[in-house]
């Protein structure tokens, strides 16, 4: 019979058998899959695993800390954090085309990750240890779909940690290959991972970089981070996390509108709320969420986030609109 306990036991044995006494590397993205894959491998081989987290500066509020502190506390994993915010912001400076942003973020990510990988291999070699394995959070649906390709993959160049170039130097360890998403969450829970990571809704690899319509700056990211944190807080407080597949919060940095706030006229930016309901992200409908929750989010964002004087709701299905704006 299928139980999370059995899955964990089986995978731990399989990983130990595969890796032996060599070492492994795992990239963490902040998402569920890489976190659960890392936790499983950590349980199997402990200090033979090194995790890498590239902080590209495009994460939502508190997410990097979740990986650095909570994930490490829960698993005892050995983590190497690469602070690459400056590098990403420099590479993105002045770029507003969505595909160009995606390509830049994907390219920089691979470069930074490969450098970290090379450093770990070199450190291992200095200690007389061979780093031979790369852990990936590939799920069963990814296995089935690979080769076929999805509609969305053709529309936008996707970037995620699972999509790193296949590195022939490394053998892959893929402990989630037989699991569906909900099973991965159950395994993660059983392994004692933080709720915020296990129940996290989908979030794109390029992060907030593709939720700013316009070019990406630190100021704009800070502003969007605040607005997004407010929306997430209120959606959670209203108990809508399960009902809503995800709710991108988008800053229209290239748009301004006139408002009246406090003592006078403002000329600020709109924030878009994009709550969607979906089964698999291939199609989606906009979520008919309670007006009171929308009102609360709107009031809070315009009161608490400087330079934002308007909140608008996206009422477009997918198709024709994609879930993300870029
Ligand atoms: P779209 O915008 O194409 O998004 O309707 C479909 C789903 O994919 C997520 N998304 C990404 N996930 N890397 C990812 O890992 C990416 O580059 C990426 N772009 C979009 C999006 O959040 C939605 O869940």
UniProtKB/TrEMBL annotation:
The protein's name: GMP synthase [glutamine-hydrolyzing]
Record has Ligase as a keyword: yes
First-level EC class: ligase
Gene Ontology cellular component terms for the protein in this record: cytosol
Listed GO MF terms: ATP binding; GMP synthase activity
Subunit structure: Homodimer.
Binding site residues for ATP: 29-35
Pathway listed: Purine metabolism; GMP biosynthesis; GMP from XMP (L-Gln route): step 1/1
Keywords for the protein's UniProt record, in alphabetical order: ATP-binding, Glutamine amidotransferase, GMP biosynthesis, Ligase, Nucleotide-binding, Purine biosynthesis
Catalysis performed (reactions): XMP + L-glutamine + ATP + H2O = GMP + L-glutamate + AMP + diphosphate + 2 H(+)
Job of this protein: Catalyzes the synthesis of GMP from XMP.
Whole sequence portion shown: 203 to 528 of 528
EC number: 6.3.5.2
Species of the source: Streptomyces inusitatus
Coiled coil: none
Domain spans labelled GMPS ATP-PPase: 2-200
